[in-house]
Amino acid sequence: MNPRVRRTESARLQMQLGPRLLILLAPICLVGALASVSSAGQLDRFYPATYAPALSDTTGALVVRPARGDTVQVDIILGEAGGRLSGRVVGPSDEGDPPVGGVIVDAESGAIHVEARTDADGRFEFPALPSGEVSVRIRTDHPHTSGRQYAAEALAPIQVPEGGTAELGDISLHAGGRLRGSVVEALGGSPVLDVQVEAVTESGVVAAVHPPDPTGRFVIGGLEPGSYTVRVAPEEGSRYLTEVLGGGRALDGAEFVLLAGGEEAQLEPIELDLGSEIGGRITTGGLNLVGTPVELRTVDGGDTRTVESADFGFYTFVGVPAGTYVVYVPALRLFYPDATRESEARHLVVGEGDVFTRVDVDGATQEGCPLPPSQRGVVTGFVELDMEQVVSAKLRMTSEADTLEMPLESDQFYTFECIPAGSYRIALLTDGPFLPQYHRKVEDPSRATVFEVDADTTDSVDFEPVRGVTVEGWVRASGGEPVEGAIVRLFDTTLHEVASVLTDGDGRYTIDRTPERWGIEAGSFYVRVDSLFVPGPDLTPVSLPRLAAEPEAPGLVRLTIDLPIAPATIQVERSTDGFGGAEAPVLVLQEDVGGGDGARVSRTDAPVPGVPVWYRLTADDGAQEWTVLAGPVVAPRIAGGLSLQVAPSPWLGTGQVRIALSGRGALGVTGEADGDGRLRLFDVSGRWVAQIPLDPDVSTAVLWSPRDRSGRPLSSGVYYLRWSDPLGRELALSRWLVLR
């Protein structure tokens, strides 16, 4: 199997047993390349950095000198180089030097970063690495590794010989420490998943970062003996605030735990508080603005958060920490409530758990422009541009006080309205091969004509952009095969990088724009392919073992297991308490799965209809054991004819709301299982806001006094009331508007 290799801006480790590799090439990372190496096939290859046509440095390298509008072909042939590195990871000698399988081993040489996984005998091998000094680290502190009872180990730099093998022999690990705990909501105790759990030393160094599992639990191992605290950092968009062990937001005052070698500390659950919420509505000239970016800026110049307005112009920021903020709408060039300058904006002093509603911004003029006629002007003109050759195009106007942009939809006349009076430079910028052009049709910004936008006047500016240069070609190995995913860089003669791209599946590349997304000016250039680690054709990218549990039919659940670590022994258990209580789980499936390229196993289970259940997959091939959870899932009997109505809508903030449920008696499951919170309220971002209990004795309607899950009043905005069956399938949905 010859896999396609994907490169992304970040690397996410994926698991598989046996000698496995994950290749990371800074600044671009290769994902999904943990794979087994076939001894009968071609091994991985390392290619050192190469200048066109096939040289190791600029001495004698090709220099291309295209003029504006030219396209030049530059092909590069890569030669293999480097050496091999192998070794074996074992436990302490006082334990009998046991082999440690399933451990991740890092190897770094400059920009090349490769990760291998030890096999059942503890052996690992890097088939191709740059020759010279290589740093090696045994990563027992990695989230997806085995051997967490041992401390991570960094070896002295290793010399890898060109064309040879560096054999490290047995690498002995010593006992380390582990931190075990869980992350839950402070209100309600539900597990929290959208966070990262950090083990931090007394000096403030982050020793390891792990995500919690689907139940909110975590185990951080591979730690050197010493004192540690835990910091839980919410991911972007989370509703929660940062929390450290012992309470608090910062490391100052955090509780530390002293770990001895071989010791495991069981921590109290870390309870996360909800951050504050800030919401409002964006309008102009009496119209709702939907999809408009809204910025929340800290007054002290810290981070800026951005969301987009949704239905009816409503927006909401969640998980806001304590601080002082201003709200800004770039499209209106207005700060809340109606200020054109930040110094005049109203400050929002936010504590913890606060809710700010009706933080509305309105560009309230009849013409949709917040500036009075005495303070604004208009610029018009014609753009001669083939829009089919670009992804997008925009006009940018810059003065000492403002930077204004307007997207272009066609190569025709444009009108740039509502411009504050002042002195401007105006440029046409494209996401394509055309050079930036400034008024009056010049490409050099220092030669741009500065013009005045006068109050209540109209100026005319035309553009006719020209194409820059294009460098294209292919990258091939010495045997003639195309090389996919190689980084091709364009340098000027001072070795300043101008642009870079990745080769496609045929080894081809095209460089016609800079990182700013517009064309390249004429000049003299070198073309270089960076050092590259390429998986051979026998490497198969794999993913984590997965377990899916879906309703199959009345009384049945379909279990689907994707098992890239075959051959292995698998076991599936069922529980009605999420495997977190005293109830003994029920064994559903146990079998040996053969094959070396992974496998898919599909089986059905028959749990009690109407009762939520969880499933746990355990997969073991003798070197490491993985556990994957799925659920809750229910096997109900459902009939049709269901509907949901909410009144009044809009609700103005006083009195109760009546929720009519038509056809509820058609449900095959009634009583407590049905009434256990299957009527839920969500905001437009999909965030679960409230849960409305269903009385099993009342089948026609529910009366509700609207509050969110924390007991706070609802903010103004658009909400969706979702009625679902016990396994979470949607029965009916109704949109509801709140105007306070």
From TrEMBL:
Entry keyword annotation includes Hydrolase: yes
Question: Do the record's keywords include Transport?
Answer: no
Pfam families from the UniProt entry: CarboxypepD_reg (PF13620)
Q: GO molecular function terms here? A: carbohydrate binding; carboxypeptidase activity
Top-level taxon of origin? Bacteria
Q: Which UniProt keywords apply?
A: Carboxypeptidase, Hydrolase, Protease
**What is the name attached to this protein's record?**
Carboxypeptidase regulatory-like domain-containing protein
The species this protein was found in: Eiseniibacteriota bacterium
